[in-house]
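Q: I'm building a small set of examples for a reading group on sequence design. Run inverse folding on the following structure and report the sequence directly after it, with nothing in between.
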């Protein structure tokens, strides 16, 4: 997803499509009446626990797999998903509207960039936690439930990043030491390993959760 310097103005205002009824059946070959994990979660009383915020640009097939992992298997919490699409030309936005009517879809009329799209999604979030997620990720069942359990048990933690694995199951580095003059001089600013076990560290942006009370940072 490339960043864009174009500014949002009246002629480029996004079209926001609210989610359809959770009883609406998805058009992806699923049997009529079959209940998704997402629908089941909304039969339980209580507020939305996690708002998943996704910025997208021309990644239709990866985004579909990402949304399936979020919505077609139980996560253990009430989840909503907001996707801000940056004027994709591959039909990604239409795919969301057709196959995932429960998703809140923001259709930008130009590529406004990764940061601004994430901010747009966060501004529409209603959950107790915001979960910024890359569109090329798959979320295993129960992941968001475990994330919320940890965050609830550690209210002093301002940001949580889950362990990342690549397609072969190998753990990927998802944190770094914050840069300092000393680390830059020793070429360790972007190293990972035991030296990163102390604070402060930075979490990479593939999957990040913050309490909603912190709100989005405007970029």
């Amino acid at each position: 997803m490339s960043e864009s310097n174009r500014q949002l103005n009246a002629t480029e205002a996004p079209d926001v499509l609210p989610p359809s009824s959770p009883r609406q059946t998805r058009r992806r070959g699923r049997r009529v009446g079959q209940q998704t994990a997402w629908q089941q979660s909304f039969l339980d009383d209580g507020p939305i626990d996690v708002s998943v915020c996704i910025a997208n640009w021309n990644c239709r097939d990866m985004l579909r797999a990402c949304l399936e992992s979020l919505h077609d298997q139980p996560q253990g919490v009430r989840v909503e998903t907001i996707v801000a699409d940056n004027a994709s030309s591959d039909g990604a936005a239409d795919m969301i509207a057709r196959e995932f009517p429960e998703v809140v879809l923001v259709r930008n009329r130009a590529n406004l960039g990764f940061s601004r799209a994430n901010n747009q999604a966060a501004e529409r979030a209603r959950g107790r936690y915001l979960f910024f997620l890359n569109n090329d990720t798959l979320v295993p069942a129960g992941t968001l439930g475990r994330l919320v359990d940890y965050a609830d048990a550690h209210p002093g933690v301002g940001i949580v990043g889950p362990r990342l694995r690549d397609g072969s199951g190998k753990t990927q580095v998802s944190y770094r030491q914050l840069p300092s003059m000393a680390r830059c001089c020793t070429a360790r600013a972007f190293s990972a390993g035991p030296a990163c076990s102390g604070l402060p560290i930075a979490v990479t942006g593939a999957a990040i959760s913050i309490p909603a009370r912190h709100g989005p940072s405007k970029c």
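The longest helix spans residues 60-71.
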